[in-house]
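MODEL INPUT / OUTPUT PAIR
PAIR INDEX: 1
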Amino acid sequence: MKLLALWCAGTLAASSIAMAQSLDANAATGETAAPPRVEARSADLLAVGIVHADRLTIHLSRLIDNAPVRDVAVTVLFRGIAHPTTAATDGSFTLRDKDLTLPGAAAVEFQIVGQGIRETLEGTLQLSAPTGASDDKNSVRQMGWWVLNFAVCIGFLLLLARRRKAADS
């Protein structure tokens, strides 16, 4: 009986540690991660693209004074397709494409034309899976297994306590 009680106590401790680690890992992979970004530069220009869902926001600036570059046409070559961008009032450029939601690495080429500028800037964008998707498909099953194990051990300990109480009376 004592061996069974020790086994249950050990299993309870192990399951509670495993559940706490699983919850910590799930909390750590939450929404605290920075959005995917790509940087591309030439001798004169710097382009920084930040991805939010299916939208790429591009900030284009001069390296010499970090001033935004306006009144140019920016075309983005992404996954083999040329996409024109839309200029925003804050000086940034926006591209919307459903391919920005696909995970994996992709070469990005920014083609800038206008104001006497004709440059091509290249970079690599590393896109991850959407934040709602879990990399570990078995995490729910594993958590259920630990909860079941925890419940069985509590049941054995309650049964053991009842038997001792009945033996003492």
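PAIR INDEX: 2
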Amino acid sequence: MRWELCRRTHDRLRGIVHALGFAHVDPSRIFCVRGYGSTSEAWARIWGLPSLWQQVLEIGPAYVVEIIEPEFSRLPEDEQDRILIHELLHIPRTFSGAIRPHRTPTFRINRRTVERFYQQYVAATAGRGDARLREADPPAPMKLAPAQPAAKAMAGISPRSPAASSSAASRRRPRGRRSR
């Protein structure tokens, strides 16, 4: 494995944070890297700095968003944005260095949640030629909806099919009868 800092991804994350009004996220404490040589099936992942390390090193909370190459770059830009939003949703409101899990009693990170935030992002950046916001733009308020009941919750984002939520459901085999 090898990593390199990625300014371009950091700029995209900063634009997403501002467009979605994630006031709890400090983009200056998020570091973006491109990882090469991973055997992971993920396209991206987020790493937090645990509080023990923060105390011992006498530094504040920080996060690293790792983009897995070459898989991430092969995706269309809208899918990349959805993945970056997904990773940002793992940052808790406390911005403590901890990682928010996919399921909590009050919030779920799944395709539906990511798509809702992506649509807000598109609406906030509409009419701007590109998807990035200028720093001077005021952030939109952050809206987090309560979690859906477990029976209605959608599965988490699959590492190989982020936009396949509707098409994947139509390809599933009907329950009850198993084909051999």
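PAIR 2 NOTE: Residues 131-180 have pLDDT under 50 and may be disordered.
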